[in-house]
Amino acid sequence: KDFRNEVRPNWCPGCGDFSVQAAIQKALAESGKEPEEVAVISGIGCSGRISGYINSYGFHTIHGRSLPVAQGVKLANRDLTVIASGGDGDGFGIGLHHFMHAARRNMDITYIVMDNNIYGLTKGQTSPTSAQGFKNPKSTPEGNIENALVPAQVALSAGIGFLAQGFSSDIKQLTEIIKAAIAHKGFSLVSVYSPCVTYNKTNTYDWYKENITVVDTIEGYDKTNRIQAMATVMEHKGLVTGILYQNESLKAYEDLIPGYKEEPIVNHELPLSEDFLTKTMKEFV
Ligand code: SF4
Hints:
Layout: H1 17-30, E1 38-42, E2 57-60, H2 66-76, E3 81-87, H3 88-94, H4 96-105, E4 110-115, E5 118-119, E6 125-126, H5 151-157, E7 162-167, H6 171-183, E8 188-193, H7 205-211, E9 213-214, H8 226-235, E10 240-246, H9 253-256, H10 274-284
Parallel strand pairs: 1-2, 1-3, 3-4, 4-8, 7-8, 9-10
Antiparallel strand pairs: 5-6, 7-10
Helix pairs in contact: 1-6, 3-4
The structure holds iron/sulfur cluster.
């Protein structure tokens, strides 16, 4: 169960994404998965390269579209553990609508976002999660004038069933979170504060360490209470890590499609028969 392959990541030394890659590989191995049971689907950006760095099925898709492809993969083969991944620009900018609908749709996939508060691949422009006032000497020298999006608030508003956040400096916590997200039956978001050491000189490892609160240290925190989760996220401006919310009673999308359980597309001979296609299409209208 080795989820490492021989491809050397071309991330900058010190990039937070290395830790996320390691945590995913460890979580998959400790969850007892085999490489052929897993598909990693990624979007565009530095972090989007991750699908090529994990020994599993992989698909490096187009900008912001990892979730539609991941949902298609899951529908075609429900036996796969499907992980979608990408960065904050990819997932919370161009892909935000896909994220919100995936959260409310509740298909059984795990979405891992590496949030570095900028667009790293294109040299540090502000992203949807850049703070108001954030400065980048080249692209935003006078400071960002827009309000930052708080992904955890969006996720809770969209009715997500599993919400967690991690930090690249804490691989142990991140691994446990990803294992829980994979085990959760339904859509799960693991949003990771993953510093860009090259283009973001504001949200550094030290800055996150000073500003992050670990949810387990909050007395009386109840991860099944959505209102408390929202209040905590708002109080900490999103900077809180751990499993923030989990609702295990929500039914996954796959369990609600009549007939789906008997007819996974992957088990059919090609070309698909007209009867099968007609029956399948009826399940979706
Ligand atoms: Fe990581 Fe930033 Fe380098 Fe991209 S530019 S690989 S996000 S450190």
